Amino acid sequence: MEQLDVFTVRELRQRTGDLLRNAEEGRLALITKHGRPAFLAVPFDERLLKHGVNKALALHLFQARHVTLSQAARISFLSIDDFLDLLSEFEIPAVDYPPEDLDGELEA
Fold first, then answer.
1. Do 77 and 52 form a contact (C-beta atoms < 8 A)?
2. For residue 7, what are the contacts with CB-CB under 8 A and spacing of at least 6?
3. Rounded to whole angstroms, how far apart are CA atoms 41 and 60?
4. Which of 17, 59, 9 has its CA nearest to residue 35?
5. Interhelix angle for 46-63 vs 80-89, to 10°?
6. Is the pLDDT reported for residue 108 higher than 90?
7. Contacts of 75 (CB under 8 A, 6+ apart)
8. 78 within 8 A of 93, measured Cβ to Cβ
9. What does the alpha-carbon distance between residue 57 and residue 75 come to, in Å, rounded to a whole number?
10. Does an H or E element contain 40, and which?
11. DSSP alpha helices (H): ranges in 25-79?
12. Across the beta sheet with 5-8, what order do the strands follow?
């Protein structure tokens, strides 16, 4: 699972460059205030432009393995089948098996 970078509101002045770099790399970042989530920084990319905030957020969260397929479909307001189509459009694999696990399942 890809680590979600967390910034405090206070750190933003000193770490603005890190936050921007994350966005350029397509990574989400969580900004907190007094230890509680305040807002989520979602990269402004093709996903966001083409599909809107909900679908872009669901794609980012799913790709980073922060949510399940079912949860991502709900976030995007799509059925699981439609979310699978969206994953396909962005060439994001729906499953992520290590080769040894896949070999074991194919043998069974």
1. no
2. 15, 18, 19, 29, 30, 31, 32
3. 11
4. 9
5. 110
6. no
7. 54, 57, 58, 61, 67
8. no
9. 8
10. strand 36-41
11. 46-63, 69-75
12. 5-8, 29-33, 36-41
What's the mean pLDDT in 94-105?
75
How many residues are there in the chain?
Answer: 108
12-49 pLDDT tens trace: 889 999 989 988 888 888 899 998 988 888 888 777 88
> Of 33, 50, 25, 30, whose CA–CA distance to 41 is shortest?
30
| Dist. CA 106–CA 104, nearest whole Å | 5
Contacts of 26 (CB under 8 A, 6+ apart): 43, 45, 60
Token pair recorded at residue 106: 């194919």
Which residues sit opposite 58 in a β-bridge?
A: none
The two structure tokens encoding residue 45:
């990319």
On whether the CB atoms of residues 7 and 32 are closer than 8 A, the answer is yes
For residue 5, what is the enclosing H or E element? strand 5-8
